[in-house]
Amino acid sequence: MLEIEAIYRQIGIRQNVLAFGGQIEKELKERFEQIDQIAEYNQLKVIQAMQKNRVSEGCFNFSSGYGYDDQGRDTLEEVYASVFHTESALVRPQIACGTHALSIALSANLRPGDELLSPAGKPYDTLEEVIGIRPSCGSLAEYGISYRQVDLLEDGTFDYDRIRKAIGPKTKLVTIQRSKGYQTRPSFSVKQIGELIAFVKEINPDIICMVDNCYGEFVEAIEPSDVGADMVVGSLIKNPGGGLAPIGGYIAGRKDLIDACGYRLTSPGLGKEVGASLGVMQSFYQGLFLAPTVVAGALKGAIFAANIYERLGYAVVPNGTESRHDIIQAVEFGIPEGVIEFCKGIQAAAPVDSYVTPEPWPMPGYDSDVIMAAGAFVQGSSIELSADGPIKPPYAVYFQGGLTWPHAKLGILKSLQSMIDAGVIDVERLNV
How far from chain centre, in Å, is Cα 250? Predict the structure, then answer.
């Protein structure tokens, strides 16, 4: 134990910060054990899916060109369909990110004259241009697809009365964002999502219900596709890639909807039949295999952060005790210096580019400067230890990831130490 403390000191964590973190870690022992149980369940689910679909060494072979009969690609999509209990799946390195996956799913299944409804309030920032909330070249709005949203109630729950009124004859697709994004609302549980889907389907069973599943995969024992979602969509450089997938996204769901996504991704007439895997299959499979335990480590880090900063008097979403439905932890500092110094600490704890100082900059797709700490093996991977936030009120930082619990723990302690060193937090508040 003394040797571990010595290494922490060498990394720049002072004794009082380490002792403060140690107190909180002890209090979380039982909760961490519950997280490990869910990880075990999801790990077995993934292994079972791989065995059922006869994953073999041949699935890791390199394919190029058109990618006809790509064994690894086709088998992986069957594995994802099994994991998410859906009819079909599209899992491709050609999907650049989560926003791209969502854009494919929306544009593939909406036509001019249709209406898109968001019953969960404003979607994630980068989707605003996809939809056309903020004008952008190639948006859904440019193709005659209208948009309507119903804001959440003050307590962060769905406004069912207004949702019922908002659903009309043109409503073709309902999009539900599981995670909070750059908002301080609670993330939704799978149970809550299932209740909303049931409500929508009762009004019109033909409405397509799509769930933006980013940051939520493997946090619970069930997924939105288990409670009625027609499509679940996510990124492989988040949870399901396990930190190994270098790129990619997935869409899992009803076969006709996924087929349409395939035609949108490639070309009418070609669909899922083309698209070479280009040698990334091994990392896709192995990343998915590791994902349940990687997510568990990230989840422990998020809960640890919530309890650390809540104890210091900051507003945190979720709070230190409530149930978790994604890996994102929001901490509201109220001043830009809090966001900036927090991110500096996370960057300093990274195995890659630890010596780099993050600065706010006008990031594409956002309406304000954004600061991002991401010393990751895969650029932009948010299942790896990272933190970011827009430099605008309420000056909240969004922390997520950590391929292992020890790294997530170090990152949080380093963020606290950075804020103390910069004078944002008075060390006396630690009370140790």
Answer: 12
Report the C-alpha gap between 112 and 107 in whole angstroms.
10
Confidence category of residue 39, pLDDT binned at 50, 70, 90: very high
pTM of the model: 0.95
- pLDDT tens digits along 328-356: 999 999 999 999 999 999 999 999 999 99
Kindly list the strands in the beta sheet with 208-212, ordered across the sheet, starting from the edge strand earlier in the chain.
88-92, 249-253, 231-235, 208-212, 171-177, 115-118, 146-149
Fill in the amino acid letter for 97: C
Query: CA 239, 244, 249, 255 torsion: positive or negative?
Result: negative
User: In the structure encoding, which two tokens stand for residue 420, read together?
Assistant: 């103390």
Which fold would CATH assign to domain 2-42+289-430? Aspartate Aminotransferase, domain 1 (3.90.1150)
- The pLDDT tens digits for 272-324 are 999 999 999 999 999 999 999 999 999 999 999 999 999 999 999 999 999 99
Q: 349-401, pLDDT tens digit by residue?
A: 999 999 999 999 998 777 789 999 999 999 989 999 999 999 999 999 999 99
Identify the architecture of domain 61-280 in CATH.
3-Layer(aba) Sandwich (3.40)
201 φψ region: left (φ > 0), alpha (ψ -120 to 50), beta (else): alpha
Residue ranges per structural domain of the chain = 2-42+289-430, 61-280
Q: How far is residue 200's CA from residue 167's CA, in Å, rounded to a whole number?
A: 8
